[in-house]
């Protein structure tokens, strides 16, 4: 509701206004051609990014609690509390990544998120399984959340930029 209110107060981009004012109704076939055939590269990038983003989101919110309970032997409540705290930290971290993306750009942070996804997976799950005390296991959960932080917070800026206004 708040997003709709805020969005209704923002002017459209000049590119959108120009296309919107001069747009003629187009067929489904023409729209399909514009979207899929002519823009297949950005579409594949979009699909790849969404796979990475949804994987990290599922890993943190769905898989990690089960992994902590079944494999690492952490009781239900501490496992869920660890995930909840990490999600709260990531919620605050979104603002930091957004400010950083304005300064250094979206691409370097996107590559950082993808690199972290590869680099921290094994150490994170090793910490969760063999870490011993809860602080070490929490560190593993936090490591799993880092790629999600970068990828999820950059998603709203990346995906619309892949495709032209027309």
3D architecture notes:
This protein is mostly helical and 166 residues long. It has helices spanning 2-8, 14-22, 28-37, 40-70, 76-104, 106-119, 121-130, 134-161. The chain is elongated, with a radius of gyration of 20 Å. The mean pLDDT is 89.
Number of strands: 0
Portion in beta strands = under 5%
Radius of gyration: 20 Å
Structural classification: mainly alpha
Describe, in short, the structure shown:
The chain is mostly helical.
Topology:
Layout (H helix, E strand, L loop, with lengths): L1 H7 L5 H9 L5 H10 L2 H31 L5 H29 L1 H14 L1 H10 L3 H28 L5
Helix pairs in contact: 4-5, 4-8, 5-6, 5-8, 6-8, 7-8
Brief descriptors of the model:
mainly alpha, 166 residues
């Amino acid at each position: 509701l708040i997003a709709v209110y805020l969005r209704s107060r923002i002017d459209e981009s000049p590119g959108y206004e120009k296309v919107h004012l001069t747009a003629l109704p187009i067929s489904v076939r023409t729209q399909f051609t514009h979207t899929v055939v002519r823009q297949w590269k950005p579409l594949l990038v979009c699909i790849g990014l969404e796979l990475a983003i949804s994987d990290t989101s599922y890993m943190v919110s769905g898989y990690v609690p089960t992994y902590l309970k079944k494999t690492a032997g952490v009781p239900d409540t501490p496992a869920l509390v660890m995930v909840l705290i990490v999600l709260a930290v990531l919620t605050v971290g979104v603002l930091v990544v957004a400010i950083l993306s304005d300064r250094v750009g979206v691409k370097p942070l996107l590559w950082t998120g993808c690199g972290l996804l590869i680099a921290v997976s094994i150490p994170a799950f090793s910490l969760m399984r063999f870490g011993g005390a809860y602080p070490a296991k929490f560190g593993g959960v936090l490591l799993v959340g880092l790629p999600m932080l970068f990828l999820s917070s950059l998603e709203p800026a990346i995906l619309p930029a892949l495709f032209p206004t027309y």
